[in-house]
Automatic annotation (TrEMBL):
First and last residue of the signal peptide: 1-20
Start and end residues of each NIDO domain: 99-251
Gene Ontology biological-process entries: cell-matrix adhesion
Keywords linked to the UniProt accession: Signal
Entries under SMART domains matching the protein: NIDO (SM00539)
Origin species: Callipepla squamata
Listed Pfam families: NIDO
Protein name: NIDO domain-containing protein
InterPro entries linked to this entry: Epithelial_Barrier/Signaling (IPR051495), NIDO_dom (IPR003886)
Amino acid sequence: MKSSFAFLLLVSGAVMNIEPTPEAALLYPYGLDQSDRKNPKLDDGTSKRLSLSVPFTFYSKEYRSLYVNNNGVISFDTKVKQYTPDPFPLVDGRPFVAPYWGDVDNVLGGDVFYRQTTDPALLKLITQNINQYFPSIPFTATWAFVATWDHVAYYGSTSNKGNTFQAVLTTNSNTSFVILNYKDIQWTTGVASGGDPKTGLGGTPAHAGFNNGDETNYYNIPSSRTEAVINITQTSNVNVPGRWVFQVDDFKVTGVPTEAPHAAASKSCWL
Ligand SMILES: *[C@@H]1O[C@H](CO)[C@@H](O)[C@H](O)[C@H]1NC(C)=O
Ligand SMILES: *[C@@H]1O[C@H](CO)[C@@H](O)[C@H](O)[C@H]1NC(C)=O
């Protein structure tokens, strides 16, 4: 009795010393309790065309609708059902954001969620994050689109592996940003892209980046289409492991030495 009472005192003392601010979550809230919609369970499936309540500017062009494509892509203008990623720039003019372009199969596991929102609590959090990463850019978010791939399987999988990642589009109607969050990446490649059914590795690995559709302007996150993309949860351009953030109205890359050779660029972002 006595020793457990002393133990209780120790525990309560320890609790009082804990910092009141918990570590910020990498993923913004998502799921059915956030009134998210879900993509149909269909290999290479997509959302329907989603009309945006606020236009979104991407590489200087304004878009009023988008698709959330199962295979790790948010596209403007046209759906993307392609499952093996091609190198950027694409030659056929498809503008899109690729958080993790690879052969997702949500029939075998996981879900693809999305919503557009003006929820003040979420916009406040996104605004705080953007202001922290881009202190010289005046920005208060007025709209956001949140797409989340939750523990999604790969095509041909014989494992329980699942990837969890998120892409957030946000704007104040003048400046726009994309936030990519990589929470848990367990596979890189579907079987139809040369991947191994048991490991989801090998073949042509997933691609993360941006393609503006003009065959000239694009950006590849370092490690895209290499086996090292499995470690994208540890990399960042804003010093938050697993988070990559870009200004996209007039596309800019910060936090990555883009002039350096590829190897140096990917090395520095591991720090
Ligand atoms: C719009 O954004 C640009 C940079 O993207 C900035 O220079 C300008 O001040 C902004 N205008 C307003 C009204 O916020
Ligand atoms: C991923 O990172 C771990 C260490 O963090 C490393 O051992 C491994 O080789 C990396 N994998 C690839 C494919 O680069």
